[in-house]
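sry for the spam today, last one i promise. struct tokens for design, 125 residues
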């Protein structure tokens, strides 16, 4: 998918999450940075290393994101945005089943949580 098409495809996801009231979230590197740009900076997204299995949601990618993301956590509601193939690629056999599905289509899914602690617990249950 060409870059321009990939960026345009994120408009619906960004709009759905903004309407739902989210401002903080987690995503893989490429998706997170595009969503911050498309939200005109309204989103503060901690990004994970693309292609790396995710054992701990606090293991954020330490490149091209806010430096405080390494040692701080979101306050208030938080979302997790993933491409469908990433569910298996980075989560392995684990499934996220405690969050509310805020957006989904054939390529992407976004889970919403009332708090960082509830999101983190979903990774370990």
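last one done:
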């Amino acid at each position: 998918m060409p870059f321009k098409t990939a960026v345009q495809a994120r408009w619906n996801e960004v709009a759905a999450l903004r309407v739902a009231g989210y401002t903080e979230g987690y995503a893989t590197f490429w998706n997170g940075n595009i969503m911050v740009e498309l939200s005109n900076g309204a989103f503060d997204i901690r990004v994970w290393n693309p292609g790396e299995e995710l054992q701990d949601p606090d293991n954020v990618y330490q490149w091209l994101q806010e430096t405080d993301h390494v040692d701080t956590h979101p306050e208030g509601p938080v979302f997790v945005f993933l491409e469908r193939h990433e569910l298996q690629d980075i989560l392995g056999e684990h499934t996220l089943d405690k969050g509310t599905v805020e957006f989904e289509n054939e390529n992407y899914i976004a889970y919403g949580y009332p708090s960082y602690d509830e999101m983190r617990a979903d990774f370990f249950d």
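The mean pLDDT is 85. ok im logging off now
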